[in-house]
DNA sequence: GCGCTTTTGACAATCATTACCAATATCGCG
DNA sequence: CGCGATATTGGTAATGATTGTCAAAAGCGC
């Protein structure tokens, strides 16, 4: 336990979680993923799902989003880092990219001497359809 | 029910929460604020603090930040909208402004037809001191 | 195969937030 | 000014996601 032990052993459970994330494109909660694994017949404990997701998140292999609802959502980290535009009403999500934002965040953090920088950004609004339905 | 029932009555409790937020510059959790009110002798229920904060947040009078820790943090909304650079280790927070980000968010959301746009952004990193201490 | 270590996982614990609902305070109005 | 309808309060219970615990089981180096 002296060195930074991340994930040192390959286990059936971790593989299951990884595979599942590879299959599911969008965001899913830990509880969600656990339920899906159960349905598939994979026997993985809820605790393990949480731990694995945390590990993967720490390792930067997956993204975490924390919507106002309270549940954390995890997603396989696609190469292109991008952000989310979420409709307040229907929950529809659009993925958007913002290279300018990335560099801005890096620059600002660097200016204050911060290192190992990451960031989260979410844009909320009302999508055209909901706005129309709202009358 | 056609009209948005926001806050229709002025009560001692709501005033207390507002005043408190006016005093405290930084971010505070609901539980925090409640404890402070208690110490001050103001008798305000925890439930009411939560409700009031939610109302104020909805009305756009205060900002909400949701750090990884899980506790929601509320802050009196200063006129200049700005974001936060948070140290992962010591929790030190630096306020940063990014006009470019604001306009970018608006533009991107608008491009997708979204209206009534708001956004949240947080930058995480390791501050110089913690980075040094980390060796 | 052996043994040391990591990992698992069922369950309990934690903890912020929300629901409930009777008691209370507010405010318009006569 | 007082009354009454109604918004609001607040103690407590419920909710529900996440984390802690720790004995049992599984990996991996040899």
Automatic annotation (TrEMBL), chains A, B:
Organism superkingdom: Bacteria
Assigned keywords, A-Z: Cytoplasm, DNA-binding, Iron, Metal-binding, Repressor, Transcription, Transcription regulation, Zinc
Residues that hold Fe cation according to the record: 81, 102, 119
Cofactor(s) needed: Mn(2+); Fe(2+); Zn(2+)
Pfam families reported in the protein's UniProt record: FUR
Primary localization class, coarse: cytoplasm
Chain sites annotated for binding Zn(2+): 87, 90, 127, 130
Co-factor binding details: Binds 1 Mn(2+) or Fe(2+) ion per subunit. Binds 1 zinc ion per subunit.
CDD domains: Fur_like (cd07153)
SUPFAM superfamilies reported in the protein's UniProt record: Winged helix' DNA-binding domain (SSF46785)
GO CC terms, sorted: cytosol
GO process annotations (BP): negative regulation of DNA-templated transcription; regulation of secondary metabolite biosynthetic process
InterPro entries attached to this UniProt entry: FUR, Fur_C, WH-like_DNA-bd_sf, WH_DNA-bd_sf
Molecular function GO terms recorded: DNA-binding transcription factor activity; transcription cis-regulatory region binding; zinc ion binding
Compartments reported by the entry: Cytoplasm
Record family assignment: Belongs to the Fur family.
Subunit and interaction comment: Homodimer.
Name used for this protein in its record: Fur family ferric uptake transcriptional regulator
């Amino acid at each position: 336990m002296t060195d930074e032990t991340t994930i040192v052993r390959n286990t059936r459970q971790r593989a299951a979680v990884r595979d599942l994330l590879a299959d599911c494109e969008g965001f899913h909660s830990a509880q969600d993923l656990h339920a899906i694994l159960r349905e598939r017949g994979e026997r993985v404990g809820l605790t393990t799902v949480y731990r694995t997701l945390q590990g993967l998140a720490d390792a930067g292999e997956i993204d975490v989003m924390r919507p106002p609802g309270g549940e954390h959502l995890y997603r396989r980290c696609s190469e292109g880092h991008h952000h989310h535009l979420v409709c307040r009403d229907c929950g529809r999500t659009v993925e958007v990219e913002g290279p300018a934002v990335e560099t801005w965040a890096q620059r600002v953090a660097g200016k204050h001497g911060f290192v190992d920088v990451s960031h989260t950004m979410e844009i909320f609004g009302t999508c055209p359809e909901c706005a129309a339905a709202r009358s």
